[in-house]
Design goal:
By secondary structure, the protein is an alpha+beta fold. It is built from 18 helices and 34 strands. The longest helix has 31 residues.
Length: 766
């Protein structure tokens, strides 16, 4: 659609903003809108409020750098080709939020016409991912103009080879969202029962797939993380040039003359017992006036990883390290991540030191940043640190830390950040990689000590850069949207609780709501409902505060070994406070500050690392689910205490209390009675008996199926006949039997995650 030749100048109406966003031939963010309407000063502040109101009213979506109409598609976005209709390729947004209302928009691909002398790009096919410019027609349909074909993901194309009775090979998926096996046109050297990676060989499903890589035994130790790595397309093999450059960078000499020498301080690194790297350490002592002097020492990764180097390009691509129970996929090669950069006990290490002064009220009254030389006094596990502090004679260095933390904790309490107690599952493996234990990780004061010192340093980093008007990659957590608050209000109303939307929404509002709930089961239910209402945190150069922590400015500074965002913050500090230490000529790039590319692409790199963070979280969660399913596969038929976490029309989802792992209870297994889906109350209600299965209810369920390959579980009521359900993946002859053709939807567990909750009664009566 053509862009209007001229726009009225001055504060626009909501409709004018919508018209501009829809007709602009470039992504339209706040800056572009302000420029188009000639806004200045206070008008820009009013525009920000208008855009916020429009987002809350469901008129627009997107980020400050690129808005689009709610229900629409960004001007430039990633699409996945999902179908062929009447000869046209049809695509959908690649990262469509499954909780968003309605179905994802469908776009018709318009490939560029061939031009003389210009090589035509390879033809696109179903399953391809593309970066595309999008256009909405006057009739409300969408067209996509591909700009670049993106690397394919193996999602849905990783699976186990199965041979049916006719000898035909099928690929049984390991992704719980994929419901059908695919015919294998070329099995290569793969054998029945092996885990493989495959790719499509044609434009239709009937053409099948061909095996391109054999991984091996799908149930062998370390296979679960490999499934996640392949499924999510996580880069895990370093290019040769990166592996060649890393040792050269690691040999850079540390100068005692240009660094602040802090080796005399008993700085301690407190980490998980199984930590693979150590990028933060802390020290504190009383200042004699009721306050404390403290140092948060962070690995000086920017000294070794210079902008423009091969190491930097790969770190930017990876975005972050990914942690699995059996391995870590690091952002940096091991010689740096696990050795030279890692703050190891008794070793001289390069650090960025954040000096903090904490006053008697627990507030940080001053801070400064230096490049330092440190020698860690102790690497100590959280549990050991807690045990030492709880003893009758704790070491002085720990006693001082705990005293300083109590001051910080008092200031935190006054700030009233969001307090949600969210259990974390921990998988412990033995020396052979087999599961030794799965349990909920205990939350100790030692965890809170480190957390509060890291938060203080992160705030200091953001404010230090703001003081110099330097670029900042902020960690942003925006307040809940009005749409989610309305959903929370309606859900709480089914429990007889009120949430007034006319008041200012603060973290303290949610905290007081939780404090008023005395029943522990009900409190967990409300807590998870509050969690669902929160927005997802992300990175960006435009500050919008951190709602959850109740902070106006917040950046990530404390984990540069495993997060690229922190590395960028370090580089910005190097520039802003003149902390440069050039590398010798010819070794690696000299500068360790921000490059022109860093400065010019902060928005793009912030978007990219936000996506890699989400990718890592999904991969880590999927892997834990597979370990839990493997752990439970020998306990099929046992009855467990569970809590219903979500309700759908086809059944409800439940998780084992104290262990986790969501499983489906199909509505067909609830007996002959008809159950009505009450969406508002998140419940299935029997029309005859009034029996209700509602989100949050606690009840006993029998484990009917545990599939380690997909991480899926299936439950039934204790008196149900598990043999009638024909669980897949638990019987010795399942793999030999083969699929006998494409799997139907009912043959695979859907494995969708319901809305979390916490429950009180088994089959309660209304």
């Amino acid at each position: 659609m053509p862009r209007p030749p001229k726009l009225p100048q001055g504060m626009p109406s909501a409709q004018q903003v919508l018209d501009f966003i829809q007709t602009s031939d470039i992504p339209a963010g706040k800056r572009e809108i302000a420029k188009a309407f000639g806004l200045k000063g206070q008008e820009k502040i009013k525009l920000k409020a208008l855009l916020k109101d429009m987002a809350e009213e469901g008129l627009i979506d997107g980020k400050k750098s690129a808005f689009h109409r709610m229900g629409g598609v960004p001007k430039v976005t990633t699409l996945k080709i999902v179908a062929i209709e009447d000869g046209d390729l049809i695509a959908e947004p690649d990262n469509w939020d499954p909780e968003a209302p309605g179905k994802p928009p469908r776009l018709t691909i318009r490939e560029p016409r061939p031009r003389p002398g210009v090589k035509r790009p390879p033809a696109l096919k179903r399953g391809d991912r593309v970066l595309a410019r999008t256009e909405e027609t006057e009739g409300g349909s969408w067209i996509a103009h591909p700009m670049k074909k993106l690397p394919s993901r193996t999602e849905g194309l990783m699976g186990v080879v199965e041979i049916d009775k006719t000898g035909k090979a099928w690929l049984a998926p390991v992704d719980k969202r994929v419901r059908q096996s695919a015919p294998i046109a070329d099995v290569g050297e793969a054998e029945a029962g092996q885990l493989v990676i495959a790719e499509r060989v044609g434009r239709s499903d009937r053409a099948g797939v061909k095996v391109i890589e054999v991984i091996g035994d799908p149930l062998a130790p370390r296979s679960f993380s490999m499934i996640a790595i392949a499924k999510h397309g996580i880069p895990h093999i370093f290019p040769e040039e990166v592996l060649e450059e890393a040792p050269r960078a690691a040999k850079l000499k540390l100068s005692e003359k240009t660094r602040e020498d802090l080796r005399h301080l008993p700085i301690v690194a407190i980490d998980p017992a199984d930590a693979r790297d150590h990028d933060d350490a802390i020290w504190a002592e009383p200042d004699g006036q009721g306050g404390f002097n403290a140092v948060v020492a962070i690995a000086d990764v920017s000294f070794y990883v210079r902008p423009g180097s091969a190491l930097d390009r790969e770190a930017r691509k990876r975005g972050n390290s990914v942690y699995f129970p059996d391995r870590v996929v690091p952002m940096l090669p091991e010689v740096l991540s696990a050795d030279v950069c890692s703050l190891k006990e008794g070793e001289d290490r390069a650090a960025m030191a954040c000096h903090l002064h904490i006053n008697a009220d627990g507030k940080v009254s001053s801070f400064r940043f230096t490049r330092a030389l440190v020698r860690i006094a102790h690497n100590i596990a959280y549990e050991d640190a807690q045990k030492a502090v709880d003893s009758s004679a704790p070491p002085e260095y720990l006693a001082n830390l705990w005293e300083a933390w109590r001051a910080l904790c008092a200031a935190r309490t006054a700030r009233d950040p969001l307090e949600l107690e969210l259990p974390e599952r921990r998988v412990v493996l033995d020396a052979e990689g087999r599961i030794a234990e799965i349990a909920i990780r205990e939350r100790l004061d030692a965890h809170r000590v480190v957390e509060d010192f890291m938060i203080a340093a992160n705030v200091a980093a953001a404010k230090a850069l703001e003081a110099k008007t330097a670029p900042v990659v902020y960690r942003i957590h925006e307040p809940p949207s009005r749409e989610k608050l309305i959903a929370l209000r309606d859900y709480l109303a089914t429990m007889g609780k009120k949430l007034a939307l006319g008041q200012v929404v603060t973290p303290g509002l949610f905290n007081r709501m939780l404090k008023d709930v005395t029943d522990e089961a009900e409190k967990a239910l409300v807590m998870e409902a509050v969690l669902r209402s929160q927005t997802q945190a992300y990175y960006g150069p435009a500050n919008a505060g951190h709602f959850g922590l109740s902070l106006g400015s917040y950046a990530h500074f404390t984990s540069p070994i495993r997060r690229y965002s922190d590395l960028l913050v370090h580089r910005a500090l190097v520039d802003a406070y003149k902390l440069e230490q050039p590398a010798p000529p010819g070794s690696i790039p000299a500068s360790s500050g921000l490059s022109d590319r860093d400065r010019d692409s902060l928005q793009q790199v912030s978007d990219a690392i936000s996506q890699t963070e989400r990718r890592a979280m999904e991969a880590e969660r999927d892997t834990i689910d597979r370990y839990v399913a493997a752990w439970l596969s020998a306990r099929v038929g046992e009855v467990f205490d569970t809590r219903i976490t979500g309700v759908q029309a086809f059944g409800f989802f439940a998780t084992i209390v104290g262990l986790g792992g969501d499983g489906l209870v199909p509505i067909s297994t609830l007996g002959g009675e008809y159950f009505r889906h009450d969406e508002a109350a998140q419940a299935l209600v029997g029309t005859d008996s009034g029996t209700s299965f509602a989100s949050g209810d606690r009840l006993k369920l029998k484990l009917a199926e545990a599939n380690p390959l997909t991480g899926s579980l299936k439950f039934v009521l204790p008196d149900a006949d598990t043999n009638a359900i024909e669980p897949r993946g638990n019987r010795p002859d399942d793999r030999k039997r083969g699929p006998g053709g494409p799997r139907k939807a009912g043959k695979f567990m859907v494995g969708q995650r319901g809305r979390p909750g916490n429950i009180r009664h088994q089959g309660r009566k209304k």
